[in-house]
Design goal:
The protein is mainly alpha-helical. The protein has a single domain, classed as Winged helix-like DNA-binding domain superfamily/Winged helix DNA-binding domain (Arc Repressor Mutant, subunit A). The chain has a two-stranded antiparallel ribbon. The protein is elongated and about 60 Å long. The model has no long low-confidence stretch (mean pLDDT 90).
């Protein structure tokens, strides 16, 4: 967590420095481009009948590395949320028929998650739509990121 204490501690270790206006502009443009994509994503996901965090959970579940067991705790880590929040998301997605819980063969206490056919279908449609949007607007996002990185290196 980044708080005022961390800012004060960091500033004590560094000499006072100010940023030129182009640095602020580059950061603002980057935030704007990120927000544009997130706005698109939130609208597309809601139109599909899901909440943004539900979509994020489904995407994370689908994209788990092969060596990671698909458990609620792992999803919570990947989504940067509390365990109980991940449980609630899974409960809602399971109720909607998007994910299912299965007991592990090796340890019946372990609950593993997977997408249902409905979840796979909806996630595929959303992902295709997101990929098309990135192809359209991605270059502006990449350019804003590169510019923000370049301005930060000048200091």
């Amino acid at each position: 967590m980044y708080n005022a204490y961390m800012v004060a501690t960091r500033s004590n270790r560094q000499k006072a420095e100010s940023l030129p206006l182009p640095d602020y502009q580059a950061l603002a443009e980057l935030r704007y481009q990120i927000r544009r994509f997130l706005h698109f994503s939130e609208r597309a996901v809601r139109k599909a009948g899901l909440e943004p965090r539900q979509h994020q959970l489904m995407l994370a579940l689908k994209a788990f590395p092969k060596d990671v067991r698909p458990r609620i705790g792992e999803l919570a880590k990947r989504l940067l949320i509390q365990h109980h929040s991940a449980v609630e998301l899974v409960n809602r997605l399971a109720k909607g028929g998007y994910v299912r819980r299965d007991r592990a063969d090796s340890d019946r206490r372990e609950v593993l998650l997977s997408l249902t056919q409905k979840g796979e279908r909806v996630l595929r449609q959303l992902s295709l739509h997101h990929r098309a949007e990135l192809r359209t607007r991605g270059p502006a996002l990449v350019a804003a990121l590169k510019h923000a990185i370049q301005t930060s290196r000048r200091g």
